[in-house]
Amino acid sequence: MLFGSGIAMLTSVCPPGERGKALGINTAAVYFGLSMGPLMGGFLTEHFGWRSVFLINVPLGALILVLVCWRLKGDWAEAEGERFDLIGSVLYSLALASLIYGLSLFPVIQGMGFVLAGTGLLAAFVIWEMRAKSPVMDIRLLRGNRVFAFSNAAAFLNYSSTYAVVFFLSFYLQYVKGLSPESAGLILVAQPAVQAVFSPTAGRLSDRIEPRLVASAGMTITAIGLVLLLFLKEGSPLYLIVACLMLLGLGFAFFASPNTNAIMSAVPRKFYGVASGSVGTMRLTGQMFSQAIALLVSALYLGSAQIVPENYPQFLMAMRAAFAVLAVLCSLGIFFSLARGDEAADLAARKPI
Length: 353
Description:
This protein has helices spanning 2-13, 16-48, 51-55, 57-71, 86-105, 109-131, 140-143, 146-160, 163-176, 181-188, 190-208, 211-229, 238-265, 272-302, 312-339, 343-349.
């Protein structure tokens, strides 16, 4: 609910010439929170136990709720009166749940069953959405809007290629390098911290330069960072890990807000909610797919074995194999980012939906 509405609200109150700046500030806020996450998570886990990581969200959530009720006023609702697409929403949710759960079970045979079920449900969702009067996802946005479709594909591939990095590096730092959870969190904070610093700059830049060029440059930097992670060994120095994380953070900063700017600018005002929801969907499904890749590769190399010193070679091979897959996905994302075309030309040539 948060991800599906926040960006739509920002887009609705910002003119096109300042939209990238606003989205950049929003992205900076998101990744400032993420940069605090590993640091505070490590501190809380080490000193107060893992349950405190969940409990701390209760007072924080209550504070945000008070601020929203107190300071946030009402806003637009151009699709008011349309019926909620309950059937489409249920089909979509079940399809994603089946796909991601099935991928997480690989290479167990039951995983294939869930993947096939999810694929069938996804096909049923598309068929239903093409017939629904008020679809939860208007398929015409994907069929007749190249910028919107390819920008979402690029977002999915970007998140798919980056989320599992923290998964592997957290184990690498704590087991192979012998660091405490707090120290590992302090190192992992390098990536989101750089994202938070450079996201406003990237957002402002996308107001002046074609967003696809800025986003594609960011995706390229991210791919380079992933390739460098392939060379990590048991004795790799910590500064090399920090440098790779900072490079990933820089690449993602120059991708996220310009790509979001392209997605939101590619649709009429009526579809801001749908477009905002698609941004959140691509992010979260990409992260889940990335995690599924991590689990699959770990299962192939480690099976059910624990990460102990005698299994460090297998863990390192699994980590490098996963980074290779992620680098390929990121390289594919560069193609989609560049192939989306000129946003202004697409808007001029496309008929209103």
